[in-house]
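Our consortium's second objective concerns turning raw sequence data into structural hypotheses that experimental partners can test. To show how far this objective has progressed, the report includes one record in full. It was chosen at random from the queue rather than selected for favorable results. The single chain below, 549 residues long, was entered without modification.
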Amino acid sequence: MSRISRRTVLRTIAVAGAATAASPLLSACSDSSGGSDVSNAGKKLAPWPAYKAASGAKPDLAPTDAGVQPGYTRYPSDLTSSVKRTPGDGSTIKVMSVTFGTPPKAAAQNQYWRAVEKALGIKIEYTVIPQADYQKKMATVMAGEAEALPDIINIFSGYVLPREAQFVQKRAQDLTPYLSGDAVHDYPNLAGIPEHAWRDMGRIGGQIYGIPLERPLTGSTLWLNQGVFDDSGMKAGWSSDDFAAVAKKATQGKKYALGAAIGSNFCNAVHSAAHNAPQGWAADKSGDFHSNYADDRFRQAIAYQAQLRKAGSFHPDATSLSSPDLNTLFLNGTVASMQNGFGAYTTLYPDSKGLLTPTPALPYSVDGKPGGQVAARRSFGYTILKKAKKERIQMLLRVLDYLASPFGTKEWELLQFGVEGVHFERAKDGTPQRNKLGEVENITNLPLRYLAEGPQVLFVPDRPEAVRALHAWQEKVVPVTIRNASFGLVSRTDVAQGATLRALMDDTITAVIAGRSSLSDYDAAVKKWRGRGGDRIAEEFAKEQAANS
């Protein structure tokens, strides 16, 4: 078997880290000290930006209104331009975002960085924050002086930041006058961000403060080593019993069918969705909210995972592996599956070439009922702007508009691949192929994608068969996706106590599956969770949902 290069491992870190992001985005409200009220209940709600599709390449595989993405089996031959003029004014802007890659080379030694600056017409001072340090760094930034804030800040969705929405409301620019309704048409690429992304980002106090990073409907996915699972008896329309049998057969010696990373609760999202349990919160027809924790199907999924663990199908270090380490074990064949975000395909297919064929698993059925698939939050974080004069805000929005250029444009190609002849060469079909410099100077190391991005599409360079397979998979699972009803909503109690309450349940779930605790312990934890704030969170989400209707 081929060896895995260090470059491959570093590239997989970007998606591995991204898969852990599951926490609410705009999730703070007024506190006991009488801070400003950032809830939307009782407020006049700003209209969402009026969507108008940005110009781009026509897909080979059509999208659907339900959520199947457009697919491109080949790179567009005729790139268009989506930006009419250089957006910047020659000034310096300070930006800050999370990163999942290695730090970039300094601008003076980075031709990609300089090329982007030239295209944008600005100088960029970029602070990149490793995912592991993000929460601590943001706490420092939020506690600092307003004047010291960067011009553009990425609010990453992987963590609940204390009093996040108060910070945004007090320190960030209210973008409602610039983006609400038809006003967004001054920025055509931002207007091309679908409404579902704005809705899942949410408003604060009825106003629009951010620009969302749009993501596909399909969320947490069980990625399989197709060869191993096929050889072990995987079949269409499999049941939970079939899945368990295949997993047991695929586990041999020191190779395991199932891998998991710390914080994933033994791939609980995938298995609870297959059991058709709520993914966080469900809302009934009357508007009442119900938590996954108190749902019998969720409890059943935990018991099922405990059986898989007892059978030895999970890697023994499933409670302590980091996401990057799990990616490495998947690529070297030690584990034959792992839970990750659907967007992991962008690195899984290139990185696994010559090693294995990755494929997203179809959900198994439980007691004769077809299983569900996790629906993602359609906004993977959002971007805010430091308060400034109107002209400055307009310039910054033009910069973000450029960064949000869609697939099939010259701007998208520059951002994704750099400069032809410097960072990439073209294959015979015109597809950009990174060279050695492009592997170290790129959008992963200088993570502009976490400031603004165009709508996501299905595309894997030189792998048309992969795009067709992913598109066909989405056609099957999109109809059975299970959405968290709390996306885009605000709850006071969730802000004040949500992180602690989630830790209580996550620790209990992990302990039960690992065999250290019983289902009776889980029931006791649910009772404690409800009494300490879970029931209040449900009431507040219901009130917020009514206000947003």
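The partners drew two points from this record. The two ends are 55 Å apart (CA to CA). The chain has two domains: 41-216+378-453, 219-374+489-548. Both points have been shared with the crystallography group to help prioritize constructs.
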